[in-house]
Design the sequence.
């Protein structure tokens, strides 16, 4: 049966884009529709079709385009697809075609209902005057159109609960794929001489944080945890919060090392050598804790959110209700005795193969 895949927009980087690559590989004969394509190297150009929004300045201004996106998704033109698979974190689940596909069953793989409009207090992008002005009518529209899919799959139980609350729909859970093999002991990829020097300069014991340096990732708490436990801190990545994080690190001279934009090989070695990977944000899933466990390294994370579904408290890490000084210090002591083999075994539940099976069981092969 021929189908069509729908995705919000394609970017060079991003967790949703990694999932899209797996979905596209599962259904190689299915064309892809998106609002715009900013990653033309990902797929053959003949496979991807953009909407008219791609030919306007709005493709560079998602917030301004937000109010008209639902209507754009309703006019995708004619298709003879026998099923629709929507990869949605905003409004892609609104997708509708004319022609034979008008009545085709729609399956929605949901990263979350749009936080812009449903969780504005948890997403700064929804806090602008414009976003709040349109959020109420968009919520009503979004909930109504969320009744159209034949079935919905969520990326975690945490998101499944949100879908029930916001859309009034039940869903199944299919965890996103994590490239576990890339973090195995025998994974290919060698360090450069400069990267080896970075590793050699680090102390034998350190805690690690890694992500984009943006406020909600709460990397400041990784520094505070290191200070509370009197352990060196390594922060890997880059982003807009670099200045604030460096200012905080300057208050504790010699205790924090920044590793700018590490390669996959260097990231893997940092995970492997870290005493613990610290993951303070409340994420819908969270790929990096699984990557860390794949190297045998335990994780300290929140006791709610997606990471609470991948990290097993006392077995592969420590889950904290709050990142208080006492909790952080005690968590570091607890994870010091965790078995690396248990971490690797837990990570093996989130492989690409597991994702492929979940998707084909759900949509079909």
Sequence:
């Amino acid at each position: 049966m021929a189908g069509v895949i729908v995705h919000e927009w394609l970017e060079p980087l991003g967790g949703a884009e990694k999932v899209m690559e797996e979905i596209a590989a599962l259904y190689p004969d299915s064309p892809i529709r998106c609002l715009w394509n900013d990653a033309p190297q990902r797929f053959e150009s003949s496979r991807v079709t953009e909407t008219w929004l791609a030919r306007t300045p709005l493709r560079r201004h998602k917030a301004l385009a937000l109010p008209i996106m639902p209507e754009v998704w309703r006019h995708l033109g004619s298709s003879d697809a026998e099923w629709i698979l929507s990869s949605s974190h905003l409004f892609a689940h609104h997708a509708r075609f004319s022609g034979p596909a008008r009545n085709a069953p729609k399956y929605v793989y949901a990263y979350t209902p749009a936080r812009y409009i449903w969780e504005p207090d948890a997403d700064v992008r929804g806090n602008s005057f414009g976003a709040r002005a349109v959020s109420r009518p968009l919520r009503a529209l979004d909930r109504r159109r969320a009744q159209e899919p034949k079935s919905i799959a969520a990326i975690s139980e945490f998101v499944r609960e949100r879908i029930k609350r916001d859309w009034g729909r039940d869903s199944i859970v299919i965890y996103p794929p994590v490239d576990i093999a890339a973090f195995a002991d025998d994974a290919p990829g060698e360090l450069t001489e400069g990267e080896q020097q970075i590793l050699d300069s680090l102390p034998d014991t350190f805690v690690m944080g890694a992500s984009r340096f943006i406020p909600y990732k709460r990397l400041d708490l990784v520094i505070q945890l290191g200070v509370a436990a009197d352990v060196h801190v390594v922060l890997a990545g880059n982003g807009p919060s670099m200045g604030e994080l460096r200012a905080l690190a300057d208050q504790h001279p010699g205790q924090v090392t920044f590793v700018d934009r590490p390669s996959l090989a260097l990231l893997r070695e940092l995970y492997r050598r870290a005493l613990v990977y610290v993951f303070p944000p409340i994420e819908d899933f969270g790929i990096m804790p699984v990557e860390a466990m794949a190297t045998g390294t335990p994780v300290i994370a929140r006791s709610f959110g997606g990471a609470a579904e991948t990290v097993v408290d006392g077995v592969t890490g420590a889950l904290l209700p709050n990142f208080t000084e006492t909790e952080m210090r005690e968590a570091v002591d607890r994870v010091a005795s965790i078995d690396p083999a248990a971490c690797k075994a837990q990570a093996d539940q989130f492989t690409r193969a597991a994702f492929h099976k979940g998707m084909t069981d759900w949509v079909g092969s």
